[in-house]
Amino acid sequence: VEFTIDLVPGTSPISMAPYRMSTSELKELKKQLEDLLEKKFIRPSVSPWGAPMLLVKKKDGSMRLRIDYRQLNKVTIKNKY
């Protein structure tokens, strides 16, 4: 699947430092990323763009992977509809 995101003209790539995580969070992150890679939902990237990831605890105690795209959203041209 190919798609593009329209950006404000003159925007340079944004790449933020990762958020700090505990050892147990890093293990869970690695496990979830390996699972997503295995299922081919994600693939390795060499893009200059990057957004930090975090884990949020769900009601059942498991962890949900989230990506913080707020900085990208600030330079995205919004759809009219």
From TrEMBL:
Q: What is this protein called?
A: RNA-directed DNA polymerase (Reverse transcriptase)
Q: Which PANTHER family match?
A: LDOC1 RELATED, RNA-DIRECTED DNA POLYMERASE HOMOLOG
The lineage's top-level taxon is Eukaryota
Output the InterPro entries linked to this UniProt entry.
DNA/RNA_pol_sf, RTL1-rel
Give the Gene3D superfamilies listed for this entry. Answer: HIV Type 1 Reverse Transcriptase, subunit A, domain 1 (3.10.10.10)
Q: Name one GO molecular function term.
A: RNA-directed DNA polymerase activity
What are the protein's UniProt keywords?
Answer: Nucleotidyltransferase, RNA-directed DNA polymerase, Transferase
